[in-house]
Amino acid sequence: MSQAITLKGRKVVGGVAEGEAIVTGDTISGWGGINERDGTVIERRHELRGQSFKGKVLVFPGAKGSSGYSAYFHMARINGASPCAMLFNKMTTKVALGCVVSRVPAMTELDQDPLEVIETGDWVKVDADRGFVEIVKRKDRDAV
Amino acid sequence: MRLTDHEKSLLDGEHGPAKQKAMDLLVRYGEALGAERLVETNNVAGAFNASTPSVQKIAEKGFDAVYSELNLDSDETVEIPRMVAHTCQLITGIDDRNWQIQGIPEHLVESQRKAEAFFGRRGINMFATCTPYQVGNVPVKGEHCAWMESSAVVYCNSVLGARTNTEGKESTGAAALTGRIPYWGYHIPENRRATHLVDVEIEVDDMMDWGLLGYHLGEVVQEDVPVLSGLTHQPDLVKLKHFGAAAASSGGVEMYHIPGITPEARSIEEAFGGRKMEGRLRFGDAERRRAYENLNCATSREVDFIMLGCPHNSIDQVWLAASLLEGRKIHPNTALWVHTPRALREVAERNGYVRMIEEAGGVVMSDTCPAISRHMPKGTKVVATDSAKQAHYLPAITGVEAWFGSVRDCVEAAIAGRWQGGLQ
Fold this sequence. Notes:
The complex is a heterodimer of chains A (144) and B (424). By secondary structure, chain A is of the alpha/beta class.
């Protein structure tokens, strides 16, 4: 049996969701950084360029760029292109408001760096109400 | 989060459904941030207009629906009353007079006009500029604001000593109807102190060098708070506007100090205010050259579009462009747009500056810019601009190549149709 890794952290937006992780070490810009119609990262030189976070657990350092950040994540939610949950490290007004209007479970201040522990393709359950994250590594999933 | 009795009554719906939705958003946002309370604000700068193609579906339901969904994050459409706080509209997508030159479809122009009529009557001032501080909204030191627009936020905090975080469309919408915003980040005095010391080792005087300094700094310090040491020339509004916009583009700088110039630091020591220095960096010839090379991504010297005025030009900058263009004609293969707030355009028309620019073949634009509107002259492949911010964003957003240089370099490129600028 595969063993889940558990992280503890602080709720940003409540709720419970699970899905496949998409992880980036690059901060994300809303305006000029994502396509709000399909959740694809469009910024030149971004490591996720061309990949979509739609329906996935987005694990990222935080937000950057224009104050239009929240409006683009807001439109992504209206278009059904939001991540299913978000985990991030650096709290800013941009990322907080973007999580709020995305209306998906979101957490920060995790007891281990989620960028180190979680890899793209891992299965991640985010229970923001109770303040924990459960991770099943992809290699363990593949073995099942 | 602790709420006052008045804030609780807003949340309980005693002041109507719009303010209830506004307070609900502020509570969700404040709790996400980890804020302990809200603070009163009477100065809001936000984005209310609905003139982009992506929001037309909502705009068809009326502007109560637009504000409810996009400015309050409310699924339910509520009737929008007058704003409680002094509120202004920032830059928009459409120049109400030059939309045909921009290439905007007429139905979107109509939508923006209807939006302005609706929001204007509710007390939203249609400044329609990224620089509200150039057209009468000049907050005083210590004033709590709720502003969007990264270049305006860094100017508000650093040059004016007023206090704002980089707010968004929904938080400014809620602040305008309640006069409240989370007390977090740059509203709190301790967070305004410096984290990084910057040794400026070369002379920084003209606008282009201020842009290069800002672009380099933002890249290195990201969202931290730099204090600049070693500057020998007195800056002015135009230079600091350009500097802050550049630092907020390559990074996320929302606050900086220049001892003796900006209001919260007479000295380097006061800028740190006891906070631990996290880093020290330098700006010399090598850093200046690297910033210049990072901004100049173009390969072709054949230039088809010259963009001046990001952030929007002051009246003195419009005069500079007009005087450089007087009696000359721009190249037939180029277009030249000079951007300034509509209120300043009135002055520029009165002075004859607009005519001077138009006689040379240029256009004076207001209300918008190419990065916001995503509209440039048809077929544009190579842009030249005096703005580090525009040179940073335009290639990413629209796929064009960009040259960055002085106003003079840009005007000469417009006349010759070729980029001949360079680093002196």
